[in-house]
Amino acid sequence: MLSLSDLTLEQVIFELKFDQTFRYWDICGAIWQDISRKVPDISLKAIDPQKAIGVVSGGQITLSFGPERMGSDQHFPKSLETFRKVTSDAAEIVLSHLKVPELVRIGNRYIYFWPGGSSEEKAAEFFEKAGFITLSERTKTLGNKIRMSRVRFVVERNDVSMTVRVGFRDATLRLETPSFVTLNRGPFLEKCVTVDVDCYSTKPVGVGTFDAELFMSTQERNSRKTIEGLLA
Amino acid sequence: MATTNLVSLNDYKARVSVTENDNLSMTRKEFKRASEITGERLGRIERAIESLSLQVESVSKTGSDRADPKNLYSGIGSEIEKEQPMILRVRSALHSSLEHLSKAQTYFSEELVREAEMDLYYGAIRRVSGLQFESSNFQEALTLLLVALEAHVSFPYLKNEIVALRSATAILADNPLMSEDALDACIDVLESATLNLAAPFAGIDFDDNSSE
User: Fold this and answer.
1) CA angle (A197, A202, A205) in 5-degree steps
2) CB B145 within 8 A of CB B129
3) B179·A99 Cβ contact <8 A
4) Between A96, A101, A222, which is nearest B75 by CB?
């Protein structure tokens, strides 16, 4: 029997989309100044007319914003609190500077992987344990074994829906290194089972009622609950 | 279009008055000019109201076209929220205060009912101020609302004042995380009904040059 504690949170992603606002070109610098006041360890990585990208805590969190979106992500977060705080502070600054009245879409994604699922057989075991394959006896006559490499479904709820993708995917670490350097790929999995839960708004959201931190903590709870429900 | 109609109406009234009473000291031309000036002023007022209502609409756009904040911050399945998030508590308290304003408007001609509802509204707003909601613009707007209500305790409410309070409260309910624009709209709405937002400064002469 698998449980949520068997999975590792690989990545968390947050994104806000809004109608194009050309103010970005006028006040990009002012936005960065305000963000760097609130998040002192942010450093600018790239900036162009389409987007500005910065990294926080030595590259652990990536923040970006542009004329029609704002986003952030973090790989292997130890604690989601910092991610939520940094993202929500940045979102507040970006939205108020760009004078965004309404958000077209809010998305918050949690990607987990199962370290135990490095082979296809193990992955099949995961799918079976999770109860994704419930084929009738008649279908079983088609062959000895039926494998399923991915499942995708959408849970529709009032104003906030959830897309769940469970799949067996390639996770090979691709790094270009000089020929004289030998890379120890031992700790990295080549293939693994991932559980990707994407929570997103299905209706526009008024900025006056949008609390990024509260939204993220609610969706994180909901995604954990969904995975627990799937694995139960 | 509405402005033109108002001008024509005044013009028409002026013409009728002149025809009916030959002893009027103003000539028809003078009357027409006077009526056009009135029309212009009315037009200006009308345009100001129009832009104000557009401003209010832009910051208090609600209804089925937008997501309900309750759904954004609610758990799934059998999860029972231990405590409702503050933003939802504030919204819910403001929405219930709006019901009192709605009743006060409906029963406007019945003074006792109207004023009782306004008292209940005042109480509801005071309760909102007791909620620890962190948003400086929201707190500023709420304070203005309280100042306006406090300054009004000994006078009966006029219809336009109730309408303005309703609009301002709706802006607050739809923008607890209030932007500068929403705060400005809220102040404009309250000022448009000439509600006294400067009551705490009563008696202070800001033009006092006695020290010079």
Assistant:
1) 115
2) no
3) yes
4) A222
